[in-house]
Amino acid sequence: MTRIGITGGIGSGKTYVCNLLKQRGIPVYHCDDEAKRLMQESPLIREQLCRLIGSDAYIGHELNKPAIAAFLFDSADNAARVNTIVHPIVKDDFAEWALRQEAPIVVQESAILFEAGFQDTVDATVLIHAPKALRMQRAMQRDHATSTQIEARMAQQTDDEEKRRRADYTILNDGTADLDRQLDQLLTSLRKKHQDVNNQNVNK
């Protein structure tokens, strides 16, 4: 099995590209969605969040989202402390999920793939890239937000050029580039690498 990590800044079109991969029969694990589920369901996360924030982190069996949000946005240090609780559980959950899949290629999608250290759980990383102006336009339309709000969110993310340097592959999603062709090339390259590794192991 080959595990791909897909990342990209706000408005890059990660979800759209992942949907194209799903249409090809490739399972996708969305880290943000699964993190929210795990914060609700994981006893270990619940125990550690209550220790960090207090008993009002949960109301009954439900995550107290306003209390969590207030703690997160109070300081960058608070956000980092929550991340040290949640991210390792997400890593383990992805590993378990991947083992249950029967497809030869699986995808992990995360806006903070490198920031969270999730690149350590995959065999190759892919950046979905689009020009900043286009990303802003997409995000403003999608979220009904102002340019100032989107700029602020972009400022909290790692610069795309830094992600580009760290990623193994880049997919251009500027509205004109042929995404299907790029995905075909990506998957062909990954399958070849996987086959080469298998051949090397057989010849040892």
- Helical content, roughly? 55-70%
Which structural category do the helix and sheet elements fall into? alpha/beta
The fraction of residues in strands falls at 5-15%
Question: What is the rounded distance between the termini?
Answer: 20 Å
Envelope shape: globular
From the alpha carbons, calculate the radius of gyration and give it in angstroms. 19 Å
User: Would you identify the CATH architecture of the largest domain?
Assistant: 3-Layer(aba) Sandwich
Kindly describe this structure.
With 204 residues, this protein is an alpha/beta fold. It has 2 domains: 1-27 and 101-195, Rossmann fold; 34-89, no CATH class. Helix content is 59%, strand content 14%. It is built from 9 helices and 7 strands. It has helices at 14-23, 31-41, 43-53, 65-74, 76-100, 132-143, 147-155, 160-166, 179-203; strands at 2-7, 28-30, 58-59, 62-63, 105-109, 124-129, 169-172. The strands form 2 sheets. A 5-stranded parallel β-sheet has the order 2-5-1-6-7, with helices on both faces. A two-stranded antiparallel ribbon has the order 3-4. β3 and β4 (62-63) form a beta hairpin. α3 packs antiparallel against α5 and α4 (65-74) packs across α5 (76-100). The longest helix has 25 residues, at 76-100. The radius of gyration is 19 Å and the shape is globular. The mean pLDDT is 91.
